Amino acid sequence: MAHIEIRNLTFTYPGKETPSLQGIDLCIEAGEFVLLCGHSGSGKTSLLRHLKPVLCPHGKTEGSVRLNGRELSEIDGRTQASAVGFVMQDPDDQIVTDKVWHELAFGLESLGTEQKTMRLRVAEMASYFGIQGWFHRNVSELSGGQKQLLNLASVMAMQPEILILDEPTSQLDPIAAADFLNTVKKINRDLGTTVLITEHRLEEVYPYADRVVVMEKGKLLANGSPRQVGQLLYERHEELFSALPTPARVFYAVGERGQCPLTVREGRSWLTERFPQQPLPHREPKPRESKLSSEMALRLRDVWFRYEKDSPDILRQVELEVPQGCLYAIVGGNGTGKSTLLKTLCGICKAYRGKIELLGKPLKKYSSRELFRGCVTLLPQDPKSLFAKKTVREELEEMDGAPEQWQAMAKLCRIDGLTQQHPYDLSGGEQQRVALAKVLLTEPRILLLDEPTKGLDGAFKITFAGILRELCQKGLTIVMVSHDVEFCAEYGDLVGMFFDGQLLTTAEPRQFFGHNSFYTTAANRMSRCLFDKAVTVSDVTELYERNRKELGS
Question: Which domain covers residue 273, as residue numbers?
């Protein structure tokens, strides 16, 4: 008997003619680790929420969802709550109390668990997840990674049979994301908990999955082992292939066939087998063209900021120069001050010391109208904070009422088919694209982006990069805070590391990522045994082909 059995599930949101889910048939066995992937808006979240009735979206549902052979809608609320755990994309959406210890106990309290049992469970979860050191802290003081780990621990305290995770690492830095996913793997392996997870960042989670399910426009496109699905996506030239782990993409890009490598370790072994001779004729990729302007769009000198007079400094002696027309990417851990830096650059947070210049003019000499119309704009980490209207069209018209302007921007950001929908009814990736269109309608010369690739699928990331590149060619300067190191390595002109309130170093992507151990790309970790400064799939592919040609094999 299947643990979860979905039969002919069809779901339509109110006011929409096309179903978001169309005849879904899927069975998940007990203890399986299943990865659900697909483009933004393909129906992944809608499907996951049908497995947790309290989160099920409003609309017309047909078909059945069974848990251990019983119709899910017929199971009492208490059993549903304890049997199916759900971790959401945004850590703050799930936290309901002010203290860490209380958050751990909240679900058990709601189930009416005996106090002695509850205290034991809370202690066990705090120990298992390494929460003892911040057990008594306020939730507001936690980093994004700590909040998401707390959400997972709170769910696991209720001992669920099934753990559902909806893009749980989208707001975590690479190290925190890897730690979080390793914890999920451990839960699956040690406790036998059935795991169903959806992710856009597939490097870490894809190789571990027992099964990969791909969705496209509300239907199942593929269902099989990771290698089977990877080969299928490649052979069908599906856009989603661009989101697969780096070793698989390099393998197919150089014309290999058969069992593709999925992990960095497998990719490294495959490369060393292909190049047993040492040293290689070519160890570094061909240099990238650098056309950085000598004129600076942004200058920061000795900038300090704290939120309250007696609180610790968040920004400490920040020095930064960004050339005009440059895509400058900032990476670093959760809670290091990256988002605060962006807010300080546009005057939302007022530095108490130091100088900030935008386009050669001190920030303090700009009026609000001058600053936010035609000068600088910020796309915040939470796109919903920009939404105040009932439809996407109204959101865009608010920024520029001219139909030709907002319609062109909607087409550019691929949201022209969503203009009549409410922004809150969209997927996370679609909301991100609407927010991008909205801020671009202010016609800025400096664009500040806080986690802009969060929620975007692999195919649209390529489109998004093209949009950014086109904007830079027109003279727009972009400063982007991101945990997506693969994106920064591929498309950034300069990359800086932010740590402990300071910008430690700045370099071009190959120089920056080429020597790091953890803040680097899968391509670099996979190929550094043979190549130097190869940080993208195209870098590794180029060196592979050049060396094979030179060696005549």
Answer: 251-287+529-551
